[in-house]
Amino acid sequence: MPWSKFSGSFLQQDIVAPQSATRHYRPDIDGLKAIAVLSVIITHYFKTLLPGGFVGVDIFFIISGYLIARSTFLEIHAGKYLVSRYFQRRVKRIFPSLIVVLIAVLALGWLVLLPNEFERVGKHIAGASVFISNWQFWREVGYFDVAAELKPLLNLWSLGVEEQFYLLFPLLIIGSIRGRRGAFTAILIVLVVSLVSSLARVTHHAGWAYFHLFSRLWELLLGSLFAYVELSRMHARFRDPAQHRQREETIWQIIPEQWQTLSSCLGFVALLASITLIDKSMPFPAPTGLLPTVGALLLIASGPGALVNRVVLSHKVLIYIGLISYPLYLWHWPLISLTRIVDQADPTTAMKFAMIAMTFVLSALCYHFIERPIRFGRSSSAVAVPMTLVACMAVVGFSGLAVFKSYGVPTRIDRLDSFGQPPLPDRVAVPGDFKSSRKVALIGDSHASMYESALRSHFFQQGLQVVSYIRAGCRPFWNLDQHSPGHSPQGCPENVNQGIEAVLADASVETVVIAARLNRPTHLIHPDQATLPASLQRGATTEEDHSFAVLRLAANQTLEKLLAKGKRVIMFTNIAEFEFSLNACQARPLRLNSHAMEPCAISNSDVVRNLAKQRQFAAQLTHDFPTLKIFDPLPFLCNAQACNARHEGKFIYWNTTHLNELGADLVMKGFATQFSNFP
Questions:
Q1: Is the Cβ–Cβ distance between 472 and 449 less than 8 Å?
Q2: Per the CB 3.0–4.6 Å rule, which of 102, 142, 399, 567 could disulfide with 484?
Q3: Distance separating alpha carbons of residues 581 and 425, to the nearest angstrom
Q4: Which among 105, 93, 33 is positioned nearest to 63, based on CA atoms?
């Protein structure tokens, strides 16, 4: 439906769109795109060279918001805007290169990735096909997350934000038209609310602020708002229709040349300062992101004839890089990320330059042989083109989903050491209907889950039933919550307190086993932490020390409750945790510059150093609660020199911090020996 039907009270009066404006091409904007994509590539390949190069994404957001809004307003004014045509153009612009890159990553993943790596890639391909990558990566921030460098499609988070904006923008405009309030007011209100929200969340909800559409929307709308201002009749000199025919209505045409020069220079300095001075330790995207976004806006507002725009941004090399900037952005990250995964190490400088060259070659091929024919070829106007692209994207998405659902298709690889080793053959199976009047309660996080089956089998042989109260990511102590970076508080007390109360109320529970990841606590929250006793605050000089003090406060309250009810309490201390991916120890289908790590181990000295504060924490608890029993699994997993991820050639871990069933059985044999007189 043509949008001119809704535009009489607002766009027909407020927007002037001379015919020449629709044909106007800004080569300097392509140059600005080049600056943005080159900044991103350099910072991703050479981290220390341009620490703030990641702000190139924010520059893209300004450009996208400006271009989309400008074309929308011009077509609405001319009465030529069709929602269907708007989305067809978006599909033809975004889908072709993206489909090629996703297929390439899927194919390469099949050839070179291990099952757990390929499973993750399949999940991200499925998400990218429906443009929810930013939501996926936001939800993955936290406890079980892997390094960003090992996610080949991480760069697609920004594409998710842009596509969600493209869906939202027409709704925002049509809503403003129907409401008779005008696009300017609607855009401004949403922009301000988004910016305030971003500012409010950036400190304690960093992941949300970075990945969420609503936290990034202000950047896109800032470009859109300028597009409206640029085209609106806000100056009296343009009130005469004759003047409209004589001149294009653009802000940069009515600003004196010296001010254009000043604006372009200030904008360029702001961009240079952004990519060289900003780093990831600063709050982002707001308020730090205002520097690159306002800088980009100043350059756009200066016009193509301004000094920097004319001399720098309009250089032919930058213009061409800007034309291929979209496939450049798509290709650059998967290449280096897949290389890092394959070698479990950063590529050499020579390899990085080779990958950058390959990125440019692949991007040029995509642009000339895929993008341009589809967008501007003879059949580009056919409705079948976007429909075919949507169908192809659906096939790619379902293929990624199939890989995810099949756990990365492990049958692809002949020589594969399984992380999911089965339990020892002498483990006694527990009947599903087994009940007992004597119970053991297991409370904890995922470290309790890894022992659960082995514990059930062990206590079953003594006639005891194990009841479990487990929530992953939550330490099992009274009123203790955690604020994982990028998320709201996890709401642990809702489940943990309920489990503790159930244990306290159940007289048949004789023993409570606590198993949790107790080392390196961070961002812990407790309602009584503001009044920590002096004995707990003593020596707390770091964030980790303070978190241990809060942890001990919650543990004390929990133990007091359990011991007052006559419960016997046994607490598991931590296992060794590896500071490298266990995939580094696997026989991979392909390696470039590395070999499988052997032995797959961490030295005892490193283990002692890593667990020192956790052991001190356990010692303090046993001092305050002499009846508390501590069980240390390390002697049953490690030898005199190191803790190995394998036992007799088989993995006993399923990731860097969790045991598999085989590892749990080895620990349980030690537990049975130490507590042979149980109960």
A1: yes
A2: 142
A3: 28
A4: 33
